[in-house]
Amino acid sequence: MTKIPSPKRPLPTEVVREMFEEMTGEPFSFSERLDIYEHYVPDTHYSDVSPPVRALADFCLILFNSNEFVYVY
Predict the structure, then answer these.
(1) Domain boundaries, the chain
(2) Do 16 and 31 form a contact (C-beta atoms < 8 A)?
(3) Disulfide check for 18: which of 12, 29, 36, 71 has CB 3.0–4.6 Å away?
């Protein structure tokens, strides 16, 4: 099975906001820098992980969703 790479999309670095002046009602716009994405590391996709790790994740989900696990204090 071949892995299809997902397209990388650039994260926004700034946003242009448009507002209206409170007293005159004149529209104005300004640019706001987004610093939230400076050190952002995206989560790993399910298809980017090796099969043994995916199998372990599926096994853990099975355990967490079992009735026996729910009633363990």
Answers:
(1) 14-70
(2) yes
(3) 29
